[in-house]
């Protein structure tokens, strides 16, 4: 065995140019490998040849694996390999490279921690680890990685041995803060990024290149902050500041491509600022902000400059430069109602889309802009169906690109990024609705309903898909067991992320990539086995529900209603069981009208029904409800899938009033987060749980809840657990073993942190966060509590709260409330509901009849309209 001391002495003599006393092949080879790697890294810095970096990494891996234990030179080899991997990651951003780099950085830090004195390369070690963590955070959106990168970058400044390294630390801190801003939208992170970069670009003892890059980054930060309206208040004119910083970057940077980018962005930002009054406000139905002649002159000047600049655009910046030109032309064309500008903008945007990296998020963004330009040409310059179809196709391709990456994204990324893309998806729906009017009979109504459903609750859909599904006959039990193992690992990662304040968990995104790679290999093999296996895989992946899948849910007697609110007002797609295509209906309702309606709803119904006077809040919905009533004639059950704020409305109560049916023909209404979730719940095997468990008045201050529990327990033949017996543990045990669970208790809702919403039990609250960590199996759960079904709208039309958590945890059917409910009336309603179910009625029909029994006594919907059925109509 080779001793570390002898090895270290040999390496030292070689480094000093002295001959060895005797041959020492291991030391000579290790030293030669290190020297060779250094030269390769230097060659890459000059020529940019990725092959030499790959060779350097291979050489260093081999040398590192042969070093004797205890050598003091291990730190140098580890850090040199980390340095090479950090250079390689932007070229080949694989999960393997990023994970290896982070692991090596941690090894380096661990070695330093064991040394008696701080080595000279400590600052460089911290900097390399910070860079590795930042690279992974930028790729995955992982907030803990970004925060850790910022921390090590700050430490690196303390130990820096050069001004360049001292400047690199704040740059990494700024980039890490921007990653965090991208996930959490906290304006403090933007302020932090600006502060860090200011230290660099104002420093006089760093290179012009480094100062120029800092100017470039701070300009990007101002533009992003302006678009998100999230900059600190002291930054008065962010676009003007951004243009100044871009111009400064163009002066200081000598690298041609970066200099070109900065120059184009300087002009593009000036153009954007010239039209800022127009950008600051969403376009109302009529009347727009006007900009003065000086602004128009500036815009004209910028367009001419951009036209000239795009001719010389390097390949790497061709897409972004044409995008800047297209945006400026589009704005001028709109302001002057100039069709020529609009068409030229469209041509420039098409080049921007065609020259973006294929299947990248950038390409999706360019396609989104292209679709918007086609839409505006169609709307403002002649309503040609071909132009509208082109808009649809651009948005559709962008949606395919984004959706393809959904499975890989962290939970935080899914929630944060979804809103931007869902606005585009709603434009897809509106385009399909309009095309159905212009080209009837060509399947556009099917596409509209399919895309409306595909735009909502994708996260819930994907997590429900991890549960139990009927196994395809073509797949062996051994393969199914392996898939189950991988799914459980993925589900655990996602639940931890979801419960961690939507910020993700350390390294979870990297672990997910490994699990997903294995799952993809399994699923790809299964898809070749036959149609049943292909359908199974589509469900498992959480794919958007196809039209055939939607149509299949419209069983005899059941209609499906998909509701949305877009820029053009309220829309609905109704699929009856006896119709080949859905019927589309639309009604005007501006966003301001919707906001006013929701405000009136909360005033009249939500907080204990002020005065119990006549209800008027629903009047803007009357035309829509009248059309729905007509379309639902002859149907006994309707499954409603709302979007956005429409989730918060009592659709069963609204439809009962609109349809005004007799007692023998009442409409049973089931609410779904999305029809795709309904499809997955329908595909689940039946629950094997048995019996019932009832809980009541855990806190001892709800006398009617205790009475309700006693009455419901008598109907269900279950001894109720009251007061101190209604504990968190008892409830969780019941949710995992009983078929029916009824809980009459206080509910608590947190709008700021919906995962803290929960049920107040004898020994504390059982929150949505707690439920996400469980595997539950009850067939029906009734939450007879205030606000138990009222969630907070998150990104991607996800309704976060108790309902979402219970569905994810495995519950198939829920009865929950949308507002604080009256104790005595609720006790009577719930007793009647369970009596009707015991008599053979399905859940939704039983709830409808029980609710309307209360309505016959108390007309105001506060008394009877809060409860809804979510999930399966058990």
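Q: What amino acid sequence fits the structure above?
A:
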């Amino acid at each position: 065995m080779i001793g570390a001391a002898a090895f270290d002495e040999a390496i030292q003599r070689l480094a000093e140019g002295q001959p060895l006393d005797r041959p020492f092949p291991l030391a000579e080879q290790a030293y030669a490998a290190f020297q060779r790697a250094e030269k390769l890294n230097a060659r890459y810095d000059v020529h940019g040849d990725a092959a030499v970096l790959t060779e350097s990494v291979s050489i260093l891996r081999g040398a590192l694996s042969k070093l004797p234990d205890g050598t003091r030179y291990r730190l140098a080899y580890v850090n040199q390999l980390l340095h090479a991997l950090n250079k390689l990651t932007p070229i080949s951003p694989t999960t393997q490279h990023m994970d290896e780099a982070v692991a090596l950085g941690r090894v380096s830090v661990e070695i330093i921690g064991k040394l008696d004195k701080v080595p000279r390369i400590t600052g460089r070690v911290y900097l390399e680890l910070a860079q590795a963590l930042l690279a992974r955070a930028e790729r995955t959106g992982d907030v803990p990685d970004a925060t850790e990168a910022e921390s090590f970058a700050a430490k690196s400044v303390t130990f820096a041995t050069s001004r360049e390294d001292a400047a690199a630390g704040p740059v990494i801190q700024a980039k890490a803060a921007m990653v965090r801003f991208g996930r959490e939208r906290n304006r403090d992170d933007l302020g932090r990024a600006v502060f860090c970069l200011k230290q660099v670009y104002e420093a006089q003892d760093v290179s012009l290149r480094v100062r120029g890059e800092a100017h470039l980054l701070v300009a990007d930060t101002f533009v992003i902050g302006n678009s998100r309206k999230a900059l600190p208040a002291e930054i008065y004119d962010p676009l003007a500041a951004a243009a100044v910083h871009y111009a400064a970057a163009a002066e200081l940077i000598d690298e041609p491509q970066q200099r070109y980018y900065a120059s184009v962005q300087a002009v593009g930002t000036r153009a954007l600022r010239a039209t800022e009054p127009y950008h600051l406000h969403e376009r109302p139905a009529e009347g727009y902000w006007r900009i003065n002649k000086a602004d128009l002159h500036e815009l004209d000047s910028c367009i001419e400059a951009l036209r000239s600049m795009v001719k010389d655009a390097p390949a790497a910046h061709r897409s972004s430069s044409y995008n800047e030109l297209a945006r400026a032309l589009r704005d001028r064309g709109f302001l002057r109602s100039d069709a020529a500008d609009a068409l030229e903008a469209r041509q420039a945007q098409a080049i921007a889309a065609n020259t973006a990296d294929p299947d990248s998020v950038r390409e999706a963004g360019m396609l989104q802009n292209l679709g918007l330009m086609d839409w505006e040409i169609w709307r403002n310059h002649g309503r040609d169906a071909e132009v509208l179809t082109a808009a649809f196709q651009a948005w559709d391709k962008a949606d395919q690109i984004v959706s393809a990456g959904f499975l890989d994204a962290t939970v935080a990324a899914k929630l944060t990024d979804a809103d931007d893309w869902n606005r585009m998806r709603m434009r897809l729906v509106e385009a399909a609705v309009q095309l159905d009017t212009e080209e009837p009979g060509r399947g556009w109504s099917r596409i509209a309903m399919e895309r409306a459903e595909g735009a909502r609750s994708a996260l819930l859909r994907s997590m429900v898909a991890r549960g139990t599904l009927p196994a395809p006959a073509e797949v062996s039990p051994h393969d199914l067991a392996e898939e189950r193992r991988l799914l459980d690992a993925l589900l655990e990662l996602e639940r931890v992320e979801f419960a961690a304040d939507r910020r993700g968990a350390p390294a979870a995104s990297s672990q997910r990539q490994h699990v997903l790679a294995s799952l993809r290999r399994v699923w790809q093999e299964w898809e070749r086995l036959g149609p049943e296996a292909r359908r199974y895989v589509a469900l498992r992946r959480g794919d958007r529900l196809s039209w055939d899948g939607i149509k299949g849910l419209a069983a005899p007697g059941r209609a499906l209603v998909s509701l949305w609110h877009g820029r053009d007002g309220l829309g609905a797609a109704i699929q009856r069981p006896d119709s080949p295509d859905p019927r589309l209906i639309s009604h005007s309702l501006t966003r301001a009208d919707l906001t006013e309606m929701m405000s009136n709803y909360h005033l009249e119904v939500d907080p204990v029904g002020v005065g119990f006077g006549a209800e008027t809040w629903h009047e803007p919905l009357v035309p829509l409800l009248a059309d729905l009533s007509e379309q639902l004639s002859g149907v006994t059950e309707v499954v409603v899938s709302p979007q956005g704020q429409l989730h918060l409305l009592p659709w069963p109560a609204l439809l009962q009033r609109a349809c005004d049916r007799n007692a023998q023909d009442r409409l049973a209404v089931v609410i779904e987060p999305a029809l795709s979730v309904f499809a997955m719940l329908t595909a689940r095997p039946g629950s094997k749980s048995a019996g019932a468990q009832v809980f009541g008045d855990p806190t001892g201050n709800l006398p009617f809840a205790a009475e309700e529990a006693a009455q419901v327990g008598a109907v269900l033949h279950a001894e109720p657990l009251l007061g101190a017996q209604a504990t968190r543990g008892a409830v969780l045990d019941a949710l995992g073993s009983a078929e029916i669970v009824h809980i009459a208790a206080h509910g608590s809702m947190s709008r700021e942190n919906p995962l803290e919403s929960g049920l107040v039990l004898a020994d504390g609250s059982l929150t949505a966060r707690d439920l996400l960590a469980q595997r539950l199996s009850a067939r029906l759960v009734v939450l007879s509590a205030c606000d138990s079904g009222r969630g907070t709208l998150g990104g991607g039309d996800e309704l976060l709260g108790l309902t979402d958590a219970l569905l994810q945890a495995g519950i198939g059917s829920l009865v929950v409330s949308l507002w604080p409910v009256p104790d005595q009336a609720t006790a009577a309603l719930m007793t009647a509901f369970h009596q009707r179910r015991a008599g053979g009625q399905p859940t939704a029909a039983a709830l409808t009849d029980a609710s309307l029994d209360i309505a016959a006594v108390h007309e105001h919907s506060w008394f009877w309209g809060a409860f809804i059925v979510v999930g399966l109509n058990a």
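Q: And what stands out in the fold?
A: The chain has a mean pLDDT of 88.
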